[in-house]
Design brief:
mainly alpha, two-stranded antiparallel sheet, 18 helices, 2 strands, globular
Length: 380
C-alpha cells in the first residue's frame, strides 16, 4: 500500500482499468444490469469486487484508495493461506520461505498488485491449494473456489486438471465447479444475451499485445514497425504479427497439452500427490500465459500462491532456484511496466531487452516447474 500511494497519477487516477471498475460499480448501484444495460469486458465473477468501494465513496480518488485497500486485504488473506498450506504439508520450518516469496513478489509488482482485481484470482487459487491439502470434503471447496475464480477471470479453470489428478472425487468436484459457474454465467447470459457473448468475442478479436512472448521475439528480430492502442492495450504491427496472432491459439493448446501430459505421467507413476497440485497448476497457467496473445503485468499476480508452494515441494536447490526465478520475473515485469514502458513503446533500449528477458525468465520458470525433481515429505 505504501508503494501504491507513491504511484504517479497516470497509474492510479489515470488508470483505464480502475476507471472501468469504478464505472461498473457505480452503474450497478444505480440499478442497471451488467451486459444488458452496459458493456463490460470482464466475466460476471469480477463484479462483486467493484461494487463495495463504489458503495462507500463518492469520488474517483476515494474509490481508488478503497479498492486498493480491498485488494490488499485479499492479498493478505491469500498470503496467510499460502503460509498455512506450506506449514501443513512440510512442517513448521517450511512456511517462512514461501510466505516471504509471496510477499516479496507482491511488493515487486506494486504498480498492479492492488490496482487490478487479479488478487481475487490469487485468493481463489490459494483457497484451492489449502483445501486440496486438507482433503476429504474440503476437495469440493477447492473446486468451488476454482469455480469462483473462473467466473472472475476464466484462467483458474486450468487448475482443475492437477486437482483432479491429485485428489479423488473428480466427477463430483467438476459438478461443483460447473455448478458455481452456472450461478454466475446463466443469469448473465439470460439478462445480457448477445452482449454477454460479446464480452468473450471482444477478447478473441484482440491483436498481439506488445508484452506477449511472441511480440517480444518479433521486436527483437526488428520486424515490428509500429505500436497502436486497441482494445484497451498496446498492440504491435508489422511483419509476422498476423501470423503470430493466428498461431497463438494452437501454440497455447500445444503448451497446455504438453504440461498436462507431464502431469498425467506423474499421476500414472503415483508421484502426483496433493502437495504437487500448486506446482502443476502454476505450470498450466504459465503455459497459457506464454502462448497467449496478451501477457499483461497483472497476470503474474495469479502465480503468487502457486509458485512459492510449488517451489517448496521441489528437491534441494531446485526449490530456491524456482523462487528466485519467480522473483526475477516479477522484478523485470515492473522494470518493463511502468519504469521503461515508454522505451518499449518507442522500441528503444532498454525496453525491448527487458521485455525479452522477462519473458525468457517465464519460459525457464515453466520448464523448471515441470522437470525439477520432487521433494519427499518430511515428518512435521
Amino acid at each position: 500500500m505504501a508503494r501504491f500511494r507513491g504511484l504517479p497519477a497516470d497509474l492510479s487516477q489515470g488508470s483505464n482499468d480502475l476507471e472501468i471498475y469504478r464505472s461498473a460499480g457505480e452503474t450497478i448501484l444505480r440499478g442497471e444490469l451488467p451486459y444488458r444495460d452496459f458493456f463490460i469486458e470482464y466475466p460476471p465473477g469480477s463484479l462483486p469486487a467493484f461494487v463495495p468501494p463504489a458503495l462507500l465513496t463518492d469520488d474517483q480518488a476515494d474509490y481508488i484508495n478503497l479498492f486498493a485497500a480491498e485488494m490488499a486485504l485479499v492479498l493478505v488473506a491469500a498470503l496467510f493461506l499460502t503460509a498455512l498450506a506450506a506449514r501443513m504439508v512440510w512442517g513448521t520450518r517450511a512456511w517462512p520461505v514461501p510466505a516471504a516469496t509471496f510477499a516479496a513478489a507482491a511488493v515487486m509488482l506494486y504498480p498492479v498488485a492492488v490496482t487490478r482485481y487479479d488478487a481475487v484470482v490469487a485468493l481463489s487459487l490459494a483457497v484451492a491449494a489449502l483445501c486440496a491439502i486438507l482433503g476429504g470434503r474440503y476437495v469440493y471447496v477447492a473446486y468451488c473456489s476454482l469455480g469462483f475464480g473462473t467466473a472472475a477471470k476464466l484462467v483458474p479453470a486450468l487448475a482443475t486438471v492437477p486437482l483432479a489428478l491429485a485428489r479423488r472425487g473428480a466427477a463430483r468436484g467438476y459438478a461443483v465447479f460447473f455448478g458455481v459457474l452456472t450461478l454466475f454465467f446463466v443469469p448473465a447470459l439470460l439478462l445480457g444475451g448477445g452482449r454477454f457473448v460479446e464480452s468473450f468475442s471482444y477478447h478473441a478479436a484482440r491483436g498481439l499485445q506488445v508484452e506477449s512472448l511472441a511480440a517480444s521475439v518479433l521486436i527483437k528480430l526488428g520486424w515490428v514497425e509500429g505500436i497502436s492502442f486497441r482494445y484497451g492495450a498496446f498492440e504491435v504491427e508489422g511483419r509476422g504479427v498476423e501470423l503470430a496472432g493466428s498461431l497463438s491459439l494452437p501454440l497455447t493448446a500445444v503448451l497446455l497439452a504438453a504440461t498436462t501430459l507431464l502431469a498425467y505421467r506423474e499421476h500414472r507413476v503415483g508421484r502426483l500427490e496433493y502437495a504437487q497440485f500448486p506446482r502443476y497448476a502454476a505450470a498450466l497457467i504459465l503455459a497459457f500465459m506464454l502462448g497467449s496473445k496478451v501477457l499483461s503485468p497483472q497476470y503474474l499476480i495469479w502465480l503468487l500462491p502457486l509458485v512459492p508452494l510449488g517451489a517448496v515441494s521441489l528437491a534441494r536447490l531446485a526449490g530456491p532456484g524456482v523462487s528466485l526465478l519467480f522473483l526475477a520475473a516479477c522484478w523485470t515485469t515492473t522494470l518493463v511496466f511502468p519504469l521503461h514502458y515508454g522505451d518499449l513503446l518507442q522500441l528503444r533500449a532498454p525496453g525491448p531487452d527487458l521485455l525479452l528477458l522477462r519473458n525468457a525468465l517465464l519460459v525457464v520458470l515453466w520448464a523448471a516447474l515441470l522437470v525439477s525433481p520432487s521433494r519427499t515429505k518430511e515428518t512435521s
